[in-house]
Every structure is written in structure tokens, then in C-alpha cells.
Write a structure and sequence with these properties.
The two termini are about 45 Å apart. This protein has 16 helices and no strands. Helix 2 packs across helix 3, helix 2 packs parallel to helix 4 and helix 5 packs across helix 6. It has 2 domains: about 130 residues; about 110 residues, no CATH class. Helices cover about 65% and strands about 0% of the residues. It is mainly α.
């Protein structure tokens, strides 16, 4: 039965990719943008990548055309190539890769934001995406994985040990429920940043670790702690951003002391 289910989900995943490649790979690189504006953008990009491969100008131009054809702005294109310069090697595959991800996310704004924020998604093979989904299935309900990918695409590109460490910290140190994780962008933060905000609120008395018998949780919701600016987050504590900055500089020093950290969480 388990084997049949794995095959079923694998076939569904492959069907989604197949759908994307058949019906969404429609962008013609040569039709997107005039040559002068593309060349100007390429020169700007090359100037910010010291190791830009010599002789790759044409591939870079093709990538710019393809990105434009998929609805990305020039600012996003520039940042994406600078952050993930190896995509120059993927110029002949980029159209299909973008179409594949559009089919996986099945939500245009989410697709554009995810690729813009995490262009390294384009390095992943379909088998790697499927493997990460299977790992997430071991923690979250299968029907919620797409929601999780929408909220935090980072879970697809980050090392699994890091993702798991963050989930364990949220659930066992902060007492957060799975559903709350799925409704927040908290997994887009590093583990250190998660600890930092949590411990800051603990020290301020704003956050209290829930007990198993507690019927009500009066802590601020995860979205108020993480899906917000530093300024709005600090307002939860009643302190100032300057005080939070001082705290952040101290955290890496004492956070290495497991005994002290355990005392904080008791």
C-alpha cells in the first residue's frame, strides 16, 4: 500500500511537471525585448559579477529575454543572475525550467516572488524537488506542502538538516503547532534569527513557553513575530530597536552556552 502511494504521488508530481512543460513553455526568447536594452542590462549585470565567464554574452542576453518573457522585471532579473550566476550555463534550458516552476506553484504572483527571492531554485532537478517533498511529507500533511512552498520556498533549497532543526526548535522549544508554521513565513528565517527573536521576547516577558496542559496560548502569533519588519517586531516588546540591536550582538556569544539556553527555555 505504501509503495502504491509513493508511486501515485510520484506520478502526480511528474504529471504536474509534464503539464507545465507542454502547456507553459510558450515563451519565444527572440521575441522578448529590444537588443539595445538587453545589452545595456547585460553590461550592468556583468559589471557586478567579477567572475562572469568570458564569451557568455549571448547566453546572458538569451536569459534576459526569457526572464522578461515570463513576466520578470529588469531589477528582479539583475538580482537573480547576480545571486545565481551559474544560470548562465542553463540558457538553453531556462525556458523549460521556469515553466516547470510555474506549473509547480500554480500561482503567478507566488511563482514570480519565489524565483526572484530564490533563483537557486532553477538549479534543482525535478528529482531533488520530489525528494524534498517526500521529506516534508514526513512532518506535515501532504495536502499542506504546496501551502508551505508558497509561504517559504526556502525549504526547497536549504539543507534538510537546517530545515529540520528550525522545525524542531519551533515545535519543541517554542511550543508552536504545525498549523501555525504553515501560516507563517518563519521558515524563511535562519535558525539563529528564529532563536534571536524568540529569546528576545522571552527576556522581555512577552513570550512564555506553553505548557502541555495550557488551554489558551496568549503568546503573539508567529506571523506577528516573523512576518513583519524589525520595527514592528520590536513594538511587541515595548523596547527600542537600539536595544534589540544590542541584544542581537550578544546572542551569538551566549547562545553557544547550551546550559544557559536551556535555562532560558525552562
Amino acid at each position: 500500500m505504501a509503495f502504491a502511494l509513493r508511486n501515485f504521488h510520484r506520478s502526480v508530481f511528474c504529471a504536474r511537471i509534464g503539464y507545465a512543460l507542454r502547456h507553459l513553455s510558450h515563451v519565444a526568447p527572440a521575441d522578448q525585448g529590444d537588443s539595445s536594452s538587453i545589452a545595456a542590462l547585460r553590461v550592468e549585470i556583468c559589471g557586478k559579477i567579477p567572475s562572469f565567464p568570458v564569451g557568455s554574452e549571448r547566453q546572458c542576453d538569451d536569459i534576459i529575454r526569457i526572464f522578461r518573457g515570463h513576466g520578470f522585471t529588469d531589477n528582479v532579473i539583475q538580482n537573480a543572475i547576480i545571486r545565481a550566476p551559474r544560470m548562465i550555463e542553463l540558457s538553453t534550458q531556462l525556458n523549460e525550467l521556469l515553466s516547470m516552476w510555474r506549473g509547480i506553484f500554480r500561482n503567478e504572483p507566488v511563482f514570480l516572488r519565489a524565483i526572484g527571492d530564490y533563483p537557486e531554485l532553477l538549479y534543482l532537478k525535478p528529482s531533488a524537488v520530489q525528494s524534498r517533498q517526500e521529506q516534508l511529507f514526513g512532518i506535515f500533511p501532504r495536502g499542506d506542502i504546496v501551502k508551505l512552498m508558497h509561504m517559504c520556498p526556502r525549504v526547497l533549497v536549504e539543507e534538510w538538516e537546517e530545515v529540520l532543526s528550525k522545525i524542531n526548535y519551533l515545535m519543541f522549544s517554542m511550543g508552536v503547532k504545525q498549523g501555525d508554521i504553515l501560516r507563517s513565513e518563519v521558515l524563511s528565517y535562519s535558525l539563529l534569527d528564529i532563536k534571536m527573536r524568540h529569546l528576545f521576547l522571552l527576556r522581555c516577558g512577552v513570550y512564555k513557553t506553553p505548557k502541555p496542559k495550557d488551554l489558551q496560548n496568549k503568546n503573539p502569533p508567529l506571523r506577528a513575530i516573523f512576518d513583519t519588519t524589525t520595527s514592528d517586531f520590536v513594538k511587541l516588546s515595548g523596547l527600542t530597536e537600539e536595544e534589540f540591536d544590542i541584544f542581537r550582538k550578544m546572542v551569538p556569544i551566549y547562545d553557544n552556552d547550551d546550559d544557559e539556553l536551556d535555562d532560558e527555555l525552562d
